[in-house]
From TrEMBL:
Any one Gene Ontology BP term: DNA-templated transcription initiation
Keyword Transcription regulation: yes
Family: Belongs to the sigma-70 factor family. ECF subfamily.
Alphabetized Pfam families for the sequence: Sigma70_r2, Sigma70_r4_2
Xref: SUPFAM superfamilies: Sigma2 domain of RNA polymerase sigma factors, Sigma3 and sigma4 domains of RNA polymerase sigma factors
NCBIfam families: sigma70-ECF (TIGR02937)
InterPro entries cross-referenced by the UniProt entry: RNA_pol_sigma-70-like (IPR039425), RNA_pol_sigma-70_dom (IPR014284), RNA_pol_sigma70_r2 (IPR007627), RNA_pol_sigma70_r4_t2 (IPR013249), RNA_pol_sigma_r2 (IPR013325), RNA_pol_sigma_r3/r4-like (IPR013324), WH-like_DNA-bd_sf (IPR036388)
Name the record gives this protein: RNA polymerase subunit sigma-24
Annotated RNA polymerase sigma factor 70 region 4 type domain residues: 119-170
GO terms, molecular function: DNA binding; sigma factor activity
C-alpha cells in the first residue's frame, strides 16, 4: 500500500491500515515514552494509551501532513498528561537567579547517532528528577521553546530554563562519571 493510500485508509478507520501504522511507528514511539518515564511498564502504558487515542482520533488526521509527526505529537501529549495525572512532575526549584545566556555544554551541540550513546543517555534520563527529564525532553527532543514549555507545563519560563540548565549539568556529570565524556 503506498503512503498516500495508507494515510487515507488510516483516516477512514481501516483496521488493516491502523495495524500497518502501529507496526511502523510502535518502536519509535515507545522510545519516546521511555524518555518521559523511569520504567518500561509505565512506558508501555503510555504507548498503549497513546495508540488508543490515535485510533479514536484517526478521522481527525489530515492526510496532507506527515503521519509520523501527528502520531508523535499525540504520544508526547499522552506522556505529559500521564506524568501530570500521576503527580510525578517534580520541579526542583532553586532560589538562585538564572540567566538564559549561560553557555551550552559542547556535548549538546553535537549530533552523535551511536546507538550505545543513545541507550546510555536514555538510561541517564531515567535517573534524573522528572522535572529535569521532562523539560530536557521537550526542549532537546521536541524542539519547544522555553515559552512553549512554560505554557505546556504551566510553569514560568525561568523555571523551564533553570530545569534545563540543571538537567544538562546533571547529565554531563553522569556522562563523565560513566567515563563517556572526559
Amino acid at each position: 500500500m503506498n503512503k498516500n493510500r495508507l494515510k487515507q485508509k488510516f483516516k477512514e478507520g481501516n483496521i488493516k491500515a491502523f495495524n500497518t501504522v502501529y507496526d511502523k511507528y510502535c518502536d519509535a514511539m515507545y522510545t519516546i515514552c521511555l524518555r518521559y518515564t523511569k520504567n518500561t511498564d509505565e512506558a508501555a502504558d503510555m504507548l498503549q494509551d497513546a495508540f488508543i487515542k490515535i485510533h479514536e482520533k484517526c478521522d481527525s488526521f489530515n492526510p496532507a501532513y506527515e503521519l509520523g509527526g501527528w502520531i508523535k505529537k499525540i504520544v508526547v501529549n499522552t506522556a505529559i498528561n500521564h506524568i501530570r495525572q500521576n503527580n510525578k512532575f517534580d520541579i526542583v526549584d532553586s532560589f538562585e537567579s538564572f540567566e538564559a545566556t549561560l553557555e551550552e555544554p559542547e556535548i549538546f551541540r553535537q549530533e552523535d547517532n551511536s546507538a550505545n550513546i543513545q541507550d546510555q543517555l536514555i538510561q541517564i534520563l531515567k535517573e534524573i528528577p522528572t522535572g529535569y527529564q521532562t523539560v530536557f525532553n521537550l526542549f532537546v527532543f521536541e524542539n519547544l521553546t522555553h515559552k512553549e514549555i512554560a505554557n505546556y507545563l504551566e510553569i514560568s519560563e525561568n523555571t523551564s530554563k533553570t530545569q534545563l540548565f540543571k538537567a544538562r549539568k546533571l547529565i554531563l556529570k553522569k556522562l563523565q562519571d560513566k567515563k563517556i565524556l572526559l
